[in-house]
Design a protein that fits this description.
alpha+beta; Beta-Lactamase; Helix Hairpins; Heat Shock Protein 90; 5-stranded mixed β-sheet; 12 strands; about 15% strand
Length: about 475
């Protein structure tokens, strides 16, 4: 019946007793009582099984309270009241002194108490506190018995002989039945029952009840696992749908913005061209119109270049052509060139003279700095001061570009580096651009093993930072497709 405990019985021998003798009469009476007891046991077992089936049906209709983050091995089961229901019924059917369910971490075999019945409130609190500090080996002591539990064997542990076991409130227990709870061939818990100091002999019917209970627990856990998996799948699907919706919206906005920018630029070029062709203008007027045409043509070329650069970066076709660069010299040259085009802004260079040269792609760094300084100008349309700083920090070159413009909302701090994204704000709706520049800048910086980020306060301005390794030796390998 059990690996370490078997019931031993032998048939009664009436010998040659007279059928009418008092002894024979006593035997007949005993036999009658045995049959009656057997009938009652069978009736009780049938009622127990019917109760289990009814309970199982009820348990299957208990609403689940799972979310995508629940622990399928034990937490959802512990969080529910099902464990207490099962152990209450087990205790009632077996009429035992005490019964409990304990979850087991399949990886560490640490215990997690689920439910117990048969203790006072104070003893129960103590039991929960102590059991969660134990492992399976602390209860059954013997490694061989642990293996038997993994093999789905029901054990009867001699708690008196197992003096090393640490289960609380076990000093008044002689034998403890330990039944495994397995899910997908994995031991995830145990159901325990005892009759105190009484040396109880478990019947086949009682064992059937216990095995039915452990099977019911396994089914409940399996259902919890399926519910958790379903919940996670639904959550992942919801996230994917939301991400797809955001991408569709961003791309739709991009098409709208680019169409508007292209149409506006082409309309301007077309209008000035028609005026020059159809009207008589002075040399100065023609020169002014030609300057406007050239500016719009440069803007159109910039937008086309941004789209082509993004495609090359995303497909891994852009390679770095690295040379030794004096970053301070590059910053000074670009700022001096750009500042001449914007009389409303005042530029301040604060450069670290100890900053050494670094290995980088000159043209790509020009693209990064020009974009960031250009944004500082565009997004501070009222003018103001722009600070360009460099600093050597922990073997990194740290560059920051600070403006006093309209700023960026906190929710958009990361999104502005996403392709096609533009902040939807009243103060920035008339500022031209495709929403690709910062995405390209990030990918170029990351190709150089650097980092880029922004700090901003709406209404007070923004500061864009990027770092580049001073020891960067460079790589000419293509950039793999970015996840940003």
């Amino acid at each position: 019946m059990f690996p370490e405990y078997k019931q031993k019985t032998r048939p009664l021998n009436t010998g040659g007793l007279n059928k009418n003798s008092p002894v024979h009469e006593s035997l007949r009476s005993a036999e009658y009582h045995i049959q009656e007891a057997q009938f009652l046991i069978e009736k009780r077992s049938r009622e127990a099984i019917d109760a289990l089936l009814a309970m199982a049906e009820a348990l299957m209709h208990i609403p689940r309270r799972l979310s995508h983050g629940d622990d399928i091995a034990g937490e959802t089961f512990i969080a529910s009241m099902i464990g207490q229901h099962i152990i209450d019924i087990t205790h009632t059917i077996l009429d035992c002194y005490r019964a409990c369910i304990v979850a087991i971490d399949p990886e560490t075999e640490r215990l997690n108490p689920v439910a117990i019945v048969g203790l006072s409130p104070e003893e129960e609190t103590d039991w929960f506190a102590k059991v969660e500090k134990l492992s399976l080996l602390d209860i059954v002591v013997d490694h061989n018995l642990v293996k038997l539990l993994h093999a789905k064997e029901v054990l009867l542990v001699d708690m008196v002989r197992s003096s090393q076991q640490k289960l609380p409130s076990s000093s008044n227990v002689h034998f403890m039945l330990v039944a495994p709870i397995c899910v997908n061939q994995q031991l995830v818990g145990i159901l325990c029952a005892d009759y105190g100091r009484e040396e109880h002999i478990y019947t086949e019917e009682e064992l059937s009840v216990i095995k039915t209970m452990t099977k019911l627990v396994s089914l409940v856990i399996e259902r919890e696992q399926a519910e958790a998996e379903r919940s996670r799948a639904l959550f992942s699907l919801q996230q994917a749908n939301e991400q797809l919706s955001r991408i569709n919206k961003i791309q739709s906005n991009f098409v709208s913005v680019v169409s508007h920018e292209f149409r506006t630029t082409l309309t301007s070029i077309q209008g000035f061209s028609e005026l020059i062709c159809e009207e008589e203008f002075s040399y100065e007027e023609v020169k002014e119109y030609a300057t406007d045409i050239n500016s719009n043509a440069l803007l159109l070329n910039e937008m086309i270049s941004e789209m082509l650069d993004l495609e090359r970066l995303s497909s891994g076709q852009m390679q770095l052509q690295q040379t030794l660069i004096n970053l301070n010299t590059l910053l000074s040259h670009l700022v001096n060139s750009i500042s001449a085009l914007t009389p409303h802004h005042s530029f301040h260079l604060q450069l670290d003279e100890t900053l050494p040269s670094l290995s980088a792609d000159h043209d790509r760094l020009v693209q990064v700095i020009t974009n960031l300084v250009g944004n500082a100008i565009k997004y501070s349309p009222a003018g103001g001061e722009i600070f360009v700083r460099s600093q050597a920090e922990n073997n990194l070159a740290h560059v920051s570009i600070q403006d006093q413009g309209i700023g960026i909302p906190s929710y958009a701090m990361e999104q502005i580096f996403t392709p096609y994204y533009r902040v939807e704000a009243e103060r920035s709706r008339y500022i031209t651009g495709t929403g690709l520049g910062l995405s390209i800048v990030r990918q170029i910086i990351e190709m150089h093993s650097g980092l880029i980020w922004v700090e901003s306060i709406p209404g007070q301005g923004s500061t864009f930072h990027f770092t580049l390794p001073l020891s960067q030796t460079g790589s000419t390998r293509p950039l793999q497709q970015s996840t940003t």
